[in-house]
Specification:
Strand order of the largest sheet: 3-4-2-1-5-9-10-8
Shape: globular
Largest sheet: 8 strands, mixed
Structural class: alpha/beta
Strand content: 15-25%
Number of helices: 14
Distance between the termini: 27 Å
Number of strands: 15
Radius of gyration: 23 Å
Helix content: 25-40%
Order of helices and strands: EHHEHHEHHEHEEEEHHEHEHEHEEEHHE
């Protein structure tokens, strides 16, 4: 349950931790958080941040009174506060020579397959380039009907989308208790949870009044999403300096433990949930490469059938037509047919844009190992991408 064995970590930071009662960002606290993140990155770990706070900061900058805001006031506050928030993260992490990128998401960006695939590709590319993505809900365009309403659930969606190993929800409490410890002195801390049962859900209380919008209920909702995606989750006390370092060194928290690893859970989702709308038939060389855990490249595709768009699920068939798996296509059926049999370096020439080198990435496919050949030699001309 330690940080040490987590390659990709999502850190969710709530408004109550980041913004004080006057609407100002707690800069000194943020700097200690940046220091912790820099230490994790030096250890070879990837870090993504899901941060609340734009509305809390923006309403102060705009002079909006305390109390419930209208939707358009929230959106105006978010648009104003997001700039200040992004700048604060940029300044804090720049001290450690860490670049920052801002990403704003709506529920449809993580739930609709094509947009999910695009967002995932962007996140993974930023991580590959050594950038820390700072993610928030896109409050300026979301309506009350299409909002997450809190960043706990958004963070869990991002964790599953990015195949993260660990999601940390920094909170005003050090985990889940059998009852609200603010009201019940005999409430007991629960250090480990492996399933969100009705008994566990009954332990959740209401959100603390103030600038935060979530509570233990939303954190348990996030835990359901994270566990289903094979991602561990921790609820930890976050208001003190170096909160992440303290958690990594064993500070008390509640840990939610999944039964699967992230990639395993994602592959199960692809295999058992998504309905295929097309198919690709691959050659023997590509089939052998798939058996070695490689991605499916255009060079190994013989034919494309069906009508599908980028991000849709398609069947993967061997040369004899037998189904060997299912995956999410990085191209529409029209584009896939045009680049079938070509080297990845030829994609731009044919499609007039720089597409992904793989037709189906290995993380976006679920294969039936019994239908795959034993690892052998790679066919000539078939590129190898991890």
């Amino acid at each position: 349950m330690a940080f040490a064995d987590s390659k990709r970590v999502i850190i969710k930071i709530g408004s109550a931790l980041l913004v004080d009662g006057t609407g100002a960002i707690r800069q000194s606290w943020l700097e200690t958080l940046a220091s912790d993140i820099a230490e994790f990155r030096r250890a070879g770990q990837e870090v993504l941040i899901v941060s609340s706070g734009s509305i809390a900061v923006g309403r102060h900058l705009l002079g909006l009174k305390n109390g419930t805001l209208k939707l358009e006031e929230k959106q105006a506050a978010a648009a104003t506060g997001q700039i200040r928030l992004a700048h604060a993260y940029q300044e804090a992490l720049a001290r450690f020579d860490i670049k920052v990128a801002q990403i704003l998401l709506t529920p449809s960006d993580t739930e609709e397959r094509r947009r999910h695939l695009n967002a995932r590709a962007t996140l993974l590319q930023l991580l590959k380039l050594g950038v820390v993505p700072v993610i928030n809900e896109n409050d300026t365009v979301a309506t009350s009907e299409i909002r997450y309403g809190d960043n706990d659930r958004l963070a869990a969606r991002v964790a599953t989308m990015a195949s993260a190993d660990l999601l940390v929800l920094l909170s005003d409490i050090d985990g889940l208790y059998t009852a609200d410890p603010r009201k019940t002195k005999t409430a007991q801390h629960i250090p480990e949870i492996r399933a969100i049962t009705p008994e566990i859900e009954a332990m959740a209380g209401d959100a603390v009044p103030g600038v935060s919008t979530g509570g233990m209920i939303t954190k348990l909702d996030a835990a359901k999403i994270a566990l289903a995606g094979g991602c561990r989750m921790a609820i930890a006390l976050g208001h003190k300096d170096h909160a992440l370092k303290a958690l990594a060194e064993g500070a008390r928290a509640s840990w939610f433990i999944p039964s699967d690893q992230p990639v395993t859970a994602r592959k199960r989702w692809i295999s058992g949930t998504l309905k295929p709308v097309g198919a690709v038939i691959v050659d023997a060389g590509a089939l052998a490469a798939l058996g070695r855990g490689k991605s499916l490249l255009p060079a190994g595709v013989r034919t494309v059938s069906g009508t599908f768009e980028r991000g849709d699920a398609v069947l993967i068939k061997g040369p004899d037509g037998r189904i060997v798996g299912k995956g999410l296509s990085a191209y529409s059926s029209d584009d896939a047919a045009r680049i079938a049999g070509l080297q990845s370096s030829e994609i731009r020439t044919v499609l007039d844009f720089d597409g992904r080198p793989e037709l189906i990435h290995r993380d976006d496919m679920s294969l039936d190992q019994s239908e795959l050949p034993v690892a052998g030699n790679q066919a000539p001309g078939l590129e190898s991408i991890g």
